[in-house]
Amino acid sequence: MALLQLKDESAGYNGKEILRGLNVTIDPGERIALVGESGAGKSTLLRLFYERLGAKAALMPQDSALVQALTVFHNVYMGRLHQRSVWRNLRNLVLPARADVEEVRKVLVPLRLEEKIFSGVGELSGGQYQRTALARALFHTGDVIVADEPVSSVDEHQAREILETMNAQKQTVILAMHDRALAIEFADRLIGVKDGQIVMDQESAGMTPGDLDNLYLNGVE
Amino acid sequence: MIARREPSPLARTTTGFLFVAIVCWIFADIAISTSDPWREFGLLLKGIVTPDFYATNSLGLALAYTLAFALLGVALANIFGFGLALIFHSRTVRVGCAFIRSIHELFWALIFLQMFGLSPLTGVLAIAIPYAGIIAKVYAEILEEADQRPLSAVPVGAGRASTFLFVRLPDAWAHFRNYSMYRLECGLRSSAVLGFIGLPTLGFHLETAFKEGYYSEVSALLIMFYLVIATMRIWMKKPLLPVYLIGAVIVLPWGVAFSLSNIIRFLTEDIIPYPLRAGGENMMSAFGDWLSLLLLDQALPGMVATIQLTMIALVATGLLTLVFFPLISPLLLGRAARTGGHTFLVIVRSTPEYILAFVLLNLWGPSMLPAIVALSLHNAAIIGHLIGRYTETIRLRIDAAKGANRYFYEVLPRVYRPMLALLFYRWEIILRETAILGILGIATLGFYVDSAFADLRFDRALLLILVTAMLNICVDSISRSIRSRLRLQTTLEQR
Amino acid sequence: MKFRTLLTAAAVIAFPFVPAMQANAADKFVFTAIPDQDESQLRKRFDKVAKYLSTTLSTKVEYVPVKSYSAAVTAFRNNQVQLAWFGGLSGVRARGLVKGSKAIAQGKADPNFETYFIANASTGLTLSKEFPKEIAGKTFTFGSKGSTSGRLMPEFHIRKAFGKVPQQVFSRVGFSGNHSRTVALVQSGAYEVGATNFKVWKKGLKNGTIDPKKVRVIWKTPGYPDYNWSIRGDVDKAFGPGFAQKVQSALISMNDPDLLSSFPRASFIPAQNSDYAPIKDTAKKLGLID
Prior knowledge:
B: 20 helices; 0% strand
């Protein structure tokens, strides 16, 4: 059964229509990258997917959006906020429960963040910051991850590490990416957005970054 | 043809306020009526340098009460204020908060004295209620300005409470803590001043000692007060808070109990206008006479004097700020001079304007002058401090002018807007204080309120307090509209 | 940590409201006095009186100081004190507010009390038999707003003489707060003219705090009834039958000169509510009571 099906739908925000005539079906296990010029509507489409998926999906928003005043533990724990009672959440905010700390630690170990578990996120380096945002999405129990430019502010080495982890840990991955090479490398399916419409939807196998030139206004990014 | 230069809105507002203040000044009573003010000032100075810590009976207890009222009052205000901030989007809550904070803590204390007598509840609530109104507003603004981006990362299905706890609260918390510390400092000042109307805090002894000319005792009391405020950041530690609060509860004399019937009587009889209480066939016309007499003979002259004094004090505050902020600005003074400047500003802004006015009134005799000087010194020290700190963030180019040219061409144009923003922000605060200074004998609204309380006419007192509150709310909204028209903003740290 | 602190704080703050709601148990007899002079000396003056009453009545008696005349009345009204040393006006107000309360004693001088108008020497005014109309246009200070000898009677005579309210007669009108302060302010020249209680004036002359070269009496009012001890009507119920009577005789039999000098009065004599009818009428006429 399909995870998600859009039939001739439109999307926008603040009452302004940005995308129309959307026809997309997403099946479990797919690895999808949305490509296109910045401002073309990738984020809007991504948000529409996330809204339809509901609690099945974890979101990794643009610029990570961590809560500055909290520690790594608390930010990651937020991934399961919806599965715990308010009291449990309150308790963990004040005095983290050992069981929950262990759960969070399991997610942090492969991301090399174990040491930082009780550090404030303000003290982290750029890469650690991005990985914390990933950890929060991974801690979410849903099978789907929806990520908006998850590797925009890290170097290529770290970017690969984050994308590999994502692919390894979540069954379905939906990304918005501006880096065409990485998108082709890590996704099996590319959805191209231009002029408020989906203009391309195909498997990535065998494609080169040059094949995507027509998505961009001047052919070059 | 040369284009005529249009004055900027900023310049127009400035000239407008200057003009109004000058007109007010012309009609103001600003005489020094004592025959030999310098002799008294000399005695005061002599007393200040020879403090006598043993002159006051139970000085320690007065200090403990001052702390206890402030701690419990501010703690209660924080709890209520926080709760109200959560529902601040409701119009009723917003208007209610504006109302309770428009009434000065001394007026609240005068009201509660009638209901609870000298019970500690009087002092605690007098601080807690207006402060809750202020805190609610500031906390609501802080929550509004908290980083909203993480909201999108909260999993679908997480409840509102959990989302609030993890996303909005943590960012705001540090601001809350800072602001609470500032409020505690204000609370200590208020608590001391409550002594002037009979609560057993430092002000109680300060007023007596001052009136009788025991300046060495005055000096000791003031030194204790400055010490408490200056060391606040050292002794006020989070883990110790419960200890302090329990201590505050233990130290206060709760034995002075009150009866419910007093409270009910106050609310259902005392504050009902006399003609209505007395009844009779001509009740309504008697009530009309009562009301018009009170409004025309007391509220109106009181309001005129209050506005007059407020306008002069506001503009004087602005002018003094221009002198005060350079005292701590690294752009204009060296390190040694700045240390002196800091000390001066700290002392002036820690002294409650009420006490400052009281001191000057005793030296110069009753006119508007002591009030103008006290209000402008205190407020200019506060704004001067904030603006001085703000200049630390200004980077001048290496070849920038020096001396007076630097002040007028480089610094002043950069700080003028934030300074005006803070001035308008404090306008309402200056008005609140102006009204209350009437208790000291200047003919502002507070004078008539105090007289009504002295005559045990609580119906009149309450009506006059309501008039004061309305005036306050008006000025607050005028100030807000001027600030938004001129796009003057204050930052969180400056509230 | 933060929330634990918050919760503890909430619990701590809620707790005192419970005991505070219980009414005062009538285990000790409390009195107060209007702060009519030398505020810092109030405790010294009246703690001695409390001690005397404790012994004489064999009940625990305590004095509580208050900051203003109206606070004394309020404390009496709210039963936080059961006995008070009032002025004529404050006594009338207090007894009007507490049903059954009565004046039980007054100083020997009180049925015929006087207010002295005093002036700074620089005014050149001297003692006159007639009301000194020359004071018009000068600066003038009363005592407390709620005082009989420092406010009510002088205002009455000023209005009678000029047919105008004091604010229209003088260039500036102040309220010094109490009688000794009125004397000090006129002596220092802060005000040119003032009105003070004749007992306080005489005491100041004797103590040497008044310098006759700087300040002098310019007019003496006719006599009127003033200070009184008033007691609540419900004390017999709270402290045993005949208690008010016992208090009255304790006050009247006070003969220790040291105690009496703190008032200062030669002795105390019985008083009754009707003695103060003239004060009540005058206050009504001036619009100070409804």
